[in-house]
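Can't paste images in this forum, so I'm doing it all in text. The chain is below; anyone willing to post the predicted structure tokens underneath?
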Amino acid sequence: MKSKKTQIMPTVWIVIFTTLFLIIAGRFLYIQVSGEVSGVSIQQLADQKRTNNYNIPASRGTIYDRNGMALAQEHIVYRLYAIVDESHTTNPLYPKHVKDVEETAQKLAPILEMDESDIAERLNDGISNERFQVEFGSNARELNQEQKEEIEALELSGINFIEEPIRFYPNGMFASHTIGLTDKQDDKIFGINGVEGFMNDYLIGEDGSISYQRDKFNMKLLDPKEVINKPDNGDDVYLTLDQKVQTLVEDALSEVEEEYDPDRMTAVVMNAKTGEILSLSNRPSYNPNSIGEVQNWYNDVIATPFEPGSTMKIFTLASAIEEGVWNPDDEFQSGTYKVGNITIGDHNGRRGWGEISYLEGIQRSSNVGIAKLAYEKIGPDRFLEYLQDFDFDKKTDIDLPGEVAGRILYNWESEKVTTAFGQGTTTTPIQLMKAATAIANDGKMLKPYIIEKTLDHETKEVIAEHEPEVVGEPISSETAKKTLEVLETVITSENGTGHNIYNLNDYTVAGKTGTAQIPDSENKGYKTGKENYVFSFLGMAPADDPKLIMYVSVKEPNLDQTESGSAPVSFVFKNVMENSLRYLNIEPDKEATEPIEVVEIPVWEDKQTDSYVNKLKDLGIEPIVIGDGEHVKKVNLESGTKITTRQTVLVATDNMKMPDLKGWSFRDVLSFRDFLDLDLEWMGSGYVKKQSIEKGSSLNEKDYLMVELEEPDVPEDQENASDESGDDEIEEEE
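Text version of the structure:
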């Protein structure tokens, strides 16, 4: 007989299983009806699992020069990766994973410049660890189109590419501190300095997105439910920089850097009537496409205040004229000038030039004369007001990041004197340029700017545009004209510190030289020695109505015993200013000895030498013929090039011989070097005195040539004048 317990247990189990079944069935029914599990939608979860979401990066805007030449733009490169998961291959006849590790490693190694073993190890490691794909480090990133096509031609299975944007600078080392740099953060390009940083919010754009449903093999479904949000690409920024003017500056600075190895250099070219910066450069600089070791991150033109030296005398002179205390014929005793417990000395060893007029004092850059103008005639308090009117106590607010203003030091009696000739008080080149616009622009001082306009990338609609802005009138129009007249004599007068140094061929120049002492932090004074100065020039041309203003400074160049500090500065100024004025079609204001004609280089290919040379002469060109061959081998200018009859034309014959280089300018020698790809070395500066290959000797391309250069003769007193700061300008008494 069964026990009562035995009879009840089956019933209990039936109830339990029935209850569990009802619970599970109810749960399934609930899920089916509601479509949710723990508050999560099953449909949404499924869609999420089988939906690919991708970011569509916005293209960063392009930075252009004023004429639409790209200075910084987005450039597409490629990152290589390899799929090693066999499951990605659906058809064995068309493998989509790396099938042969050894072959893949062998063929990729020379293109990626990697060891075969390194590539094979990465592939095998990915396979053994059951990874879907592997990458190959920095060597497989930022591949160009040529490398990509070379790898694609190998037809290696499993090898794929991802497009990646980088920032590319077409001109390399070109206004690098001004244009700026970018960096990548989470695959997004951000500007970090220069215009790239200053205008980042405009340039960066807003990313878009794309989403679609896929199968387990990552292939789109027939109905992928694709959603695309287009990116809003970054805006384009146009600068006031002119690529051709900037190239003139970069080339000149590079030549000076190579020959003189200075510690620092700056150069700025500005439109005198608008405040637009046409060129701005510093040395040392860097190539933003390949940074390497950067010696100087600062944009010195706007961010490095220094004691400007005698270029400050421009504004002391203008203040005296405006105040009505300037009489060019008044005389003073040069040499030394005592104020309180300090003695000011002129730059020629404190000897001076006897009793001279104030006009001659400006021409000779007399510290004594300018100090007496500021301290005695204008008065310290009134002179300070002029300095403030010229905005030497504030930033220019140029549209670049990192500007640092100089300081007017005016607390002690000595500072009230030395500020007049640019010592003690500090300023930046851009502050000097801004103040100089008042001299060049009828007394109206302009705000310097470098960003011309911002355009919508798609519609080309102007979003923002900069207009010239007058920010002050420290002097009258009449004073500005008188100041220009005096500054022109610094160049034209035989007494002038710029005479025979800063003259241009076709244009008059008004300007002021500067030789500023450099503070010596270790010895609590100023550095001594011939080279330990900041040599500079601030010039405006044409003199009577300046269209361009240019400032050049060269700090501590390596000079020969016979060279003055003005040599590297004048090389930059003359090359850039003369050629920029011509390029901008500014009418020459000097009377030409003969009319300037524009002619076209005739076709020279397959021409006989004599007939071609005669044709050039008929056009008014006196070519330099290299050799005595019967046929023209090459000409330094392409056929059809339009030139003036003053430009140098080199004609190489099929039997080249060395021409006589004596008297050639350094610029012509460089053109000769580039024309024949010569291995050139040189000593000194100026014009050719000696050459290593004798005139008439056989000459071949890539030959080695050494030339010795020398400066033209300069009167002894003028030679001294080019070094305006003595080691003992100021002497303090106990």
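The chain has 21 helices and 36 strands. Residues 4-34 form the longest helix (31 residues).
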